[in-house]
Automatic annotation (TrEMBL):
UniProt keyword list: Aminoacyl-tRNA synthetase, Ligase, Nucleotide-binding, Protein biosynthesis
Name of this protein: histidine--tRNA ligase
InterPro entries (alphabetical): aa-tRNA-synth_II/BPL/LPL (IPR045864), Anticodon-bd (IPR004154), Anticodon-bd_dom_sf (IPR036621), HisRS-like_core (IPR041715), HisRS/HisZ (IPR004516)
Domain (Class II Histidinyl-tRNA synthetase (HisRS)-like catalytic core): residue spans on this chain: 14-71
Catalytic activity: tRNA(His) + L-histidine + ATP = L-histidyl-tRNA(His) + AMP + diphosphate + H(+)
GO annotation terms (biological process): histidyl-tRNA aminoacylation
SUPFAM superfamilies: Class II aaRS ABD-related, Class II aaRS and biotin synthetases
Name of one Pfam family that matches: HGTP_anticodon
Family indicated by similarity: Belongs to the class-II aminoacyl-tRNA synthetase family.
Occurrences of domain Anticodon-binding (ranges): 102-185
Species name: Chthoniobacter flavus Ellin428
EC nos: 6.1.1.21
Amino acid sequence: MVEGLNARGLGGFIDIDYAIVRGLAYYTGVVFEVFDRSKNERALAGGGRYDKLLSLMSDGKVDLPALGFGMGDVVLANLIDDVPAAAAQRDAWLKQERACDIYVVVAKEERRSDALALVQQLRDAGQRVDFPLTAAKVGKQFQTAELLGATRAVLVGDEWPQVKVKTLATREEILVPIGEIKTALGQ
């Protein structure tokens, strides 16, 4: 294994450590951990070989060798924050990308299932859509929409089976029958 890494020019990036223990009984071979060069954080990722796991999980129906790993999102976020060039790339990407196009505001909790159906319909049409996971005041939901960079909000409330479509930049609102929502949103 080490010879193969050396042949690929990766030998300088590995340290053999026979003390690493992954702690799960199904590993059958090499285990590994991935660190940043400074090793200021705990492992970014860790994993290893588990050649009998698929056989174990499939009651012997599938017997293939395997390798897997898991990554730590908090550790990765810390590393990005610690590397100015990486943080700059993340920030530039976030400025150009919105978290969502449309935010569905649930103005009346009794309409949450209708709002969720609308969210799914808009997502199926290729829109990036977000909504509140729990009950929240309408004003707070509009704040969240703006924080996420949404260009429009769709308010589901007392007007049902119509919804209000609000363009967040201009504050312009129109009332739209639910059956015409895709057309109103330019779908």
